[in-house]
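Design job #97: recover the sequence.
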């Protein structure tokens, strides 16, 4: 973008607002399509003969409005509409994403063994101190990270789970390899908080941005809890749909 555009400095409209409106018009006309990367702040500033701080403010406003998405280290992109994510008795990430003609993927970003504290023991209906597997995962849709999750399982029941998930990238497939053919969602709790720096890096969103917190418990056919998960979702990329 080298062609310089003129700003109407006598219009009584803030310069950053004029740039924001221009960006929205370009998006509306299809010049910048959903998922496309915007020119850099420096390029836009040169086009309008303004400083980069003015451009940064215009972009920040559009990010807050959900029109743009700023990914740390990658740039600014035209945001897609949030993906619907149904929450019901059978909630399966890969099935939900594939059903919307998108490509799901996932990878393990950490694992450890730890003893069940009071919270985990209560959620999994296990004695205090029982050895648990903690699995940290990152889930991606069409190349864009959408959620980070921490899940806990009884280690004695699923001793090969870490290797199975590393191989399959799917909890459903990994648990099936470990002898659990099916499971259902027992409970889901939704809240919100500000993202921490580590999750912000994985989700490629600014630190301090609000995110959705989804705590869930899955059970087997006998009603015994098999998995407790605390998920952190990028709020501008996923729209929860509660099924009745």
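Job complete. Output follows.
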């Amino acid at each position: 973008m080298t062609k310089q555009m003129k700003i109407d400095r006598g219009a009584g409209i803030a310069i950053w607002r004029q740039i924001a409106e221009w960006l929205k018009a370009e998006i509306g006309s299809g010049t910048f399509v959903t998922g496309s990367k915007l020119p850099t702040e420096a390029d836009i500033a040169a086009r309008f003969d303004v400083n980069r701080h003015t451009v940064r403010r215009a972009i920040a406003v559009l990010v807050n409005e959900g029109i743009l998405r700023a990914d740390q280290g990658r740039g600014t992109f035209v945001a897609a509409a949030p993906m619907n994510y149904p929450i019901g008795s059978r909630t399966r990430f890969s099935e939900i994403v594939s059903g919307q003609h998108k490509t799901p993927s996932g990878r393990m970003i950490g694992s450890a063994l730890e003893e069940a504290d009071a919270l985990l023991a209560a959620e999994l209906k296990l004695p205090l101190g029982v050895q648990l597997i903690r699995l940290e995962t990152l889930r991606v849709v069409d190349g864009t990270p959408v959620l980070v999750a921490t899940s806990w399982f009884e280690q004695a029941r699923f001793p090969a789970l870490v290797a199975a998930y590393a191989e399959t990238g799917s909890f459903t497939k990994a648990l099936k390899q470990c002898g659990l053919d099916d499971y259902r969602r027992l409970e889901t709790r939704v809240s919100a908080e500000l993202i921490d720096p580590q999750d912000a890096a994985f989700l490629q969103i600014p630190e301090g941005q609000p995110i959705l917190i989804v705590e869930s418990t899955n059970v087997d056919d006998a009603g015994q809890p098999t998995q407790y998960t605390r998920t952190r979702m990028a709020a501008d990329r996923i729209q929860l749909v509660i099924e009745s």
